[in-house]
Amino acid sequence: MKPSELFNLTGKTVVVIGGTGELCGAMAEGMAAAGAQVVLVGRDATKAEKRIAAIQADGGASCFESCEVTSRSALNNLADRIHEKAGKVDVLVNGAGINSATPFLDISDEEMDRIISVNLKAVLVSCQVFGARMLATGGGSIINLGSMSGIIPLSRVFTYSATKAAVHNLSKNLAREWATQGLRVNTLVPGFFPAEQNRKVLTPDRVASIMGHTPMKRFGEARELIGATLLLASDAGSFITGSEIVVDGGYAAMTI
After folding, report:
1. Coil, strand, or helix at residue 190?
2. Which of 17, 196, 228, 239 could serve as a FRET partner for 23 with CA atoms 20 to 30 Å apart?
3. pLDDT tens for each residue of 67-115
4. What residue ranges in 2-80 does DSSP mark as E strands?
5. Residue 252, domain member (yes or no)
6. In total, how many domains does the chain have?
């Protein structure tokens, strides 16, 4: 099989939860360019319209679905709508996420519950809701967005780090559970990519610290996640499950 065929997603339906964001939006563009019909899921229709326009300008196909992803009933309704239109879902990306730099002793129950609900509960329930349907239609690929803070403890983002560590663990468990049923589950782990959810914590001293720990001495660009995304979404990654694919400019390899 030619490499172009291995990474081809023609005829596939892809659901990108968090697809109106910067990183998942770029991933969605990449999968649309590879031939997939991409469903962007989020709450900001204006951002979605811009992303859909970019996808369509490049010859791709995309649409938007609004959903409160922390709600099981909303996710079930979303999955039903997509299956009614497309027949099945081949790839699911769980990329919704929020962050906070609140000092540990000042974290309120309200803030903690909100971050856990978006970053962990939404991923877990989405995997249940879409995973059941994907198993029933022959499997596919689930890509959960992890974080360097899910692997290496990072300062200032305590609740976020805890949720991402849990997502890494969940992904491995699900990969093991569904490995013989045609449904692969992996974690895509971005290094430091400036995005809406982390700009508030990118103070000058923190940026200097990040650059000092990143061998490539720069932040990642959203488009640099597309290659790893296509690997995990397509037949090119047919024997990859339970893995953490790190795209970080060498950050995880740095010690002293």
Report:
1. strand
2. 239
3. 999 999 999 999 999 999 999 999 999 999 999 989 999 999 999 999 9
4. 13-17, 37-42, 61-66
5. no
6. 1
Burial category of 129 from C-beta neighbours within 10 Å (exposed 0-12, middle 13-18, buried 19 and up): buried
Domain membership of residue 18 as a residue range: 3-247
In-domain check, residue 253? no
Active site residue 160: yes
In a domain, 254, yes or no: no
Tokens matching residue 99: 């962050």
CATH at residue 219: 3.40.50.720
Which tokens in the block code for residue 28? 């969605």
pLDDT, one tens digit per residue, over 11-56 is 999 999 999 999 999 999 999 999 999 999 999 999 999 999 999 9
What is the spatial distance between Cα 215 and Cα 190, in angstroms, rounded to a whole number? 15
In a domain, 164, yes or no: yes
CA atoms of 53 and 149, how far apart (whole Å): 33
**151: its two tokens:** 């692997």
Q: Can you name the residues that pair with 143 across neighbouring β-strands?
A: 93, 186
Q: What is the pTM of this model?
A: 0.96
Pairwise CA distance, residues 125 & 58, whole Å = 33
